[in-house]
From TrEMBL:
Chain residue ranges for the region called Disordered: 38-70, 303-326
Keyword check for Signal: yes
Signal peptide limits: 1-21
Name of the protein: Heavy-metal-associated domain-containing protein
């Protein structure tokens, strides 16, 4: 069987397992999400969508013309593939989350470039956007990545591996779905432009305009006072992950400014540049560090037309109680 056929068969099996597991776990997974993940898996194994075609994203918007690979929704891209993904199969069970990245030669990749001070960034988030984790597993001599792991809530999770293979020289994001059995009570993502995490207040301002680079400014305060003691974390004063609500399409976000020097501090503002591929709602997760402790602030904003007065991506109702973090 040729490689594309094998990948296509693997994708169909993955979707079938995903559906059966969801039923077995009494999981209420939105049909649009299942369909979007299934279509993205299929399109990736066939090297992307045909040119000129228009698709519907999981929220019903037209113009989702970016390939699954570029949005991190495929298990394979440019000859690289996510394989041997294992995790604990029960809530509260101690175990390991592990995976292997294979290259175009079919062998495990063992040579990576540093990106944001790490060889591989692992993002794990539930289908509804909650229980977000950004962690950094260790790589063994055989190329397998692993980290101690325990699931705290049931549901379907997306596992993203973000890395730069040395031979490839460009960033790649691969992902797959992992099912955790148990009762699943999905949360609806509502716009949240201001949130409080572990005593820190975080706000987002700026227009997120679909199809073009957008500047988003995160501001961190505590007890009403600006926080100016932000410490370098992953080569910047903050690290932002953005995911499209519904299918969890992965956006690459870049901080502004030069990389900070050791011992340097900043704040209260952190500025990022993000590009939303389609109109819709986006889940933002800001990691920042103060006094050696990393905090994660979840926010939710919608895209705008970019021109209407007062129509800002951060201009939504404040203080929403929807938790996009842990």
């Amino acid at each position: 069987m040729k490689a594309p056929a094998r990948l296509g068969l693997y994708g169909l099996v993955l979707v079938a397992v995903f559906a059966v597991a969801a039923f077995t776990a009494n999981t209420v997974v939105p049909e649009s999400t299942v369909q979007a993940w299934a279509e993205d898996t299929e399109s990736t194994t066939h090297q992307g969508h045909e040119e000129g075609g228009e698709d519907m994203d999981s929220t019903g918007h037209e113009g989702h013309d970016a390939g699954a690979g570029s949005l991190g929704l495929g298990i394979a891209q440019d000859g690289y593939q996510l394989t041997a993904v294992t995790a604990p199969d029960a809530l509260g069970a101690d175990g390991e989350l592990s995976l292997t990245v294979t290259g175009p030669d079919g062998k495990p990749v063992t040579d990576y470039e540093l990106e944001h001070e790490k060889e591989l960034h692992l993002i794990v988030v539930r289908a509804d956007g909650t229980h977000f984790r950004h962690i950094h597993p260790e790589r063994g001599a055989d190329g397998a990545w692993s980290i101690p792991w325990q699931w705290e809530a049931a549901g379907t999770y997306r596992v993203f591996a973000d890395f730069v293979p040395a031979e490839h020289g460009e960033g790649i994001t691969l992902s797959t779905a992992v099912q955790v059995p148990g009762d699943y009570d999905p949360a609806a993502a509502e716009p949240v432009a201001e949130t409080t995490v572990e005593g820190f207040d975080v706000t987002v301002e700026g227009d997120l305009v679909a199809g073009s680079a957008s500047e988003l400014t995160m501001t961190v305060t505590r007890d009403g006072e600006p926080v100016t003691a932000l410490e370098p974390y992953l080569g910047a004063f903050g690290h932002l992950v953005a995911l499209r609500d519904g299918d969890l399409a992965y956006l690459h976000v870049h901080p502004h400014g030069d990389a900070p020097k050791a011992g340097e501090t900043s704040g209260p503002e952190i500025v990022f540049e993000a590009t939303a591929p389609t109109p819709g709602r986006y889940l933002l997760y800001l990691d920042f560090q103060v006094d050696g402790q990393v905090h994660t602030a979840p926010l939710v904003i919608d895209t705008t037309t970019g021109g209407a007065e007062g129509e800002h991506g951060g201009g939504h109702e404040e203080g929403g109680d929807h938790d996009h973090g842990e």
